[in-house]
Amino acid sequence: MSLRPGSVFLADCPARLAIEIIANKWAVVTLFGLSDGPLRHGELAELIGGISRKVLTQTLRRLQDHGLVARQVYAEAPPRVEYSLTELGRTLEEPIRALTAWARTNGETIAALHDGTETDEI
């Protein structure tokens, strides 16, 4: 892949749209939360922590609109709804796991640099 101007990530480039969809801070966390299997809205909100139900709903809808998340409604009383990764969404599992591992390894250093404090790793 070339990084020459005009070769990738132009305004109308599909690759740019794909990056914009998953670049949202809650999108990657939501996708990672669904990587172990289907969850209900409340279960996912509890698992993620720090996300409002409204923002989770918006995130799930956006991921669903772009084919990364499936919404399954069960005909029960009361109705049960579960969210899961689609086949396309599953293709993000490995990159998200790698990004998560990187974040775990480097999170303290990033936070220290952001706060202006030093760590032994810097």
Short précis:
InterPro entries: HTH_HxlR, WH-like_DNA-bd_sf, WH_DNA-bd_sf. By secondary structure, this protein is mainly alpha-helical.
Molecular structure report:
By secondary structure, this protein is mostly helical. It has a single domain, classed as Arc Repressor Mutant, subunit A (Orthogonal Bundle). The chain is 55% helix and 11% strand. The chain is built from six helices and three strands. A three-stranded antiparallel sheet has the order 1-3-2. A hairpin with a 5-residue loop joins strand 2 and strand 3. The radius of gyration is 17 Å and the shape is globular. The model has no long low-confidence stretch (mean pLDDT 88).
Name the descriptors.
55% helix, 6 helices, 3 strands, Arc Repressor Mutant, subunit A, single chain, 122 residues
Which SSEs are present, and which pair or pack?
Blueprint lengths: L13 H10 L1 H9 L5 E2 H8 L4 H13 L3 E6 L5 E6 L1 H4 L2 H23 L7
Antiparallel strand pairs: 1-3, 2-3
Protein name: Helix-turn-helix domain-containing protein
InterPro entries: HTH_HxlR (IPR002577), WH-like_DNA-bd_sf (IPR036388), WH_DNA-bd_sf (IPR036390)
Pfam families: HxlR (PF01638)
Q: How many distinct helices?
A: 6
Question: Mean pLDDT score, rounded?
Answer: 88
- Indicate the overall shape: globular
* Beginning-to-end CA distance, first to last residue: 32 Å
Give me the CATH fold name.
Arc Repressor Mutant, subunit A
